[in-house]
Design goal:
77 residues, alpha/beta, 4-stranded parallel β-sheet, 4 strands
């Protein structure tokens, strides 16, 4: 599976998803991974084809898995 776009999302606002986006970018940079777009959004934008991988809180994983592969976080920081 090739990952070109990661969408970090939360349930309602954009604050939590923005923190997840920044942390995902830090991890990719520390691993030397380039060429992956990381964005943040709300649950309303989660749909098949919107991203190759979804990152969200653990309780939202079932919503994300309807759209594609997902990683659920217990601690957003």
């Amino acid at each position: 599976m090739s990952i070109n776009k990661i969408m970090c999302f939360c349930g309602s606002s954009l604050g939590t998803s923005f923190v997840m986006e920044m942390n995902a970018k830090k991890v990719l940079t520390s691993l030397g991974v380039t060429g992956v777009e990381v964005v943040h959004s709300t649950i309303d934008d989660v749909m098949p084809g919107a991203a190759d991988l979804y990152i969200c809180s653990a309780d939202l994983v079932p919503n994300a898995e309807k759209a594609g592969p997902a990683v659920g976080l217990v601690n957003m920081m």
